[in-house]
Amino acid sequence: MIFSAFAQISVWGVLAASAFGFVFGGVYFGALVPKYYAIAMGRKSIPAAKPDMLTILGPFLCNIVIIVTTGALMRLIGIAALADALSFGLVVGVGYLLAMCMTIAINPNFPRPFYYTLVNAPYFLVSSLLTSAVLFLLG
Description:
Layout: H1 4-7, H2 11-32, H3 34-40, H4 53-77, H5 82-105, H6 113-137
Helix pairs in contact: 2-4, 2-6, 3-6, 4-6, 5-6
């Protein structure tokens, strides 16, 4: 039963949500918050590293895993309305993505874990909400 939910996920929904996440991530982290991200990482005075294939494709592939998992969970719990999909996206965004972001940042290598989470929060929340909406609408 659990694995059959994966077969019910819309490929178009996954592709659309993945494309959105890739473009939104590029704009968000590349144009909107790079200065704040550097501050959060304690690297304000260090020139930004050039993105390589790992820093471009790695998050994209990880996001696909998140999207597919979100789609399977939505099928398993029977999301039947857009409002439910958005509520689910909010729960996943706050309960998993933001909490995990904060968990990762609470270590000696992150000088400002709360600021780091605050900088990343809009991306994770918007992505989670739109992923859930897209998967519902194209599902």
